[in-house]
Design a protein that fits this description.
Radius of gyration: 15 Å
Strand order of the largest sheet: 1-2-8-7-6-5-4-3
Order of helices and strands: EEHHEEEEEEHH
Number of strands: 8
Distance between the termini: 19 Å
Shape: globular
Largest sheet: 8 strands, antiparallel
CATH architecture of one domain: 2-Layer Sandwich
Helix content: 25-40%
Structural class: alpha+beta
Number of helices: 4
Strand content: 35-45%
CATH superfamily of one domain: START domain
CATH topology of one domain: Alpha-D-Glucose-1,6-Bisphosphate, Chain A, domain 4
């Protein structure tokens, strides 16, 4: 791969009946990926994946703190994602709940892990649902295409911070 090129798309696997594992390499150091993941004005640049306008981003980055992102699709559908931070290890790990607010009964637990090798970062997100049905509904929502686009933009934002 040429220096400065995108690291490509994420890999999505299903390690257990209730889990989704997302893995992607970034051409950026992990402190910049972490900063882009946790800073409201930077989140606004990648979260909507060019599929929706990000209307608001609230981040209370502390254990017990809440987060909430509200977006509106270009055809006018407004929706939010929200959750609570359970564990924070700066530049390395974030554990937080996540709820897609139009379907509030399907809370997931997301574990984001960032590992660095040289100036590159490996991001993994383990998404744990309460059931296979919730996991499958998440997968069938079209999340993967949007997530792929969002992570491409996340890498672009992280690299712009150099």
């Amino acid at each position: 791969m040429t220096a400065g090129m995108s690291s490509g798309t994420a890999t999505v696997t299903l390690p257990a009946d209730n889990q989704i594992l997302i893995t992607r390499e970034f051409d950026a150091p992990r402190h910049l990926v972490y900063r882009a993941w946790t800073t409201p004005e930077l989140i606004k640049r990648w979260w909507g994946a060019e599929r929706a306008e990000v209307l608001s981003v609230e981040v209370d980055l502390r254990v017990g703190g809440r987060w909430r992102y509200v977006s509106r699709t270009y055809d006018g559908f407004e929706f939010g994602f929200s959750g609570e931070y359970r564990e924070i290890v700066e530049n390395e790990r974030l554990v937080a709940t996540e709820v897609y607010e139009p379907v509030p009964d399907h809370e997931a637990l997301n574990t984001l892990t960032l590992t660095q090798s040289g100036g590159r970062t490996r991001l993994t997100i383990l998404v744990e649902h309460d059931s296979r049905q919730s996991r499958d509904a998440h997968l069938e929502s079209g999340m993967e295409a949007g997530m792929q686009d969002a992570l491409t933009l996340l890498e672009r934002v992280a690299r712009s911070l150099r």
